Input
Amino acid sequence: MNHKTWLGIAVVVGSLWGGACGKSREAAATATQEFRQRAAAGHWVSIYKGAAPEFQKSITEADFAKMMTGVSGKLGTWQSSKTPIWNVTAGTGGRTVTLKYESQFEKGIGFEDFLWRIQDGRGILLGYHINSPVFMAN
Output
């Protein structure tokens, strides 16, 4: 094959991958919005039961609810976030999306990391981590 053929193949593959990345990122952003709505309502069980088995193996339902209740108590309700830093990865386990947010909560700032598996066009929670200077305060 000549260079023009390889370039054409690269453009087509890049276009397909770019479209898949965008759709995966959108699915993860939608799942994050749903997470926030459930969290605001205190529906920890709903979040937990909708999460991936890997997530459920990493923490019990009771411990997740306890953690989220503590986070909510310290930070209050979510107010807003800056545009996230994101990463889309494709592997043998499917496509995953990481979204990292600097978020403003009622009582302070928080740094959130969401890890979503994209399955049938929807985000399935694989991981959630949050840190905040508020956690260090008495």
The CA atoms of residues 114 and 128 lie 5 Å apart. The beta strands are 78-81, 85-91, 94-105, 108-119, 122-131. The longest strand covers residues 94-105. The chain has four helices and five strands.
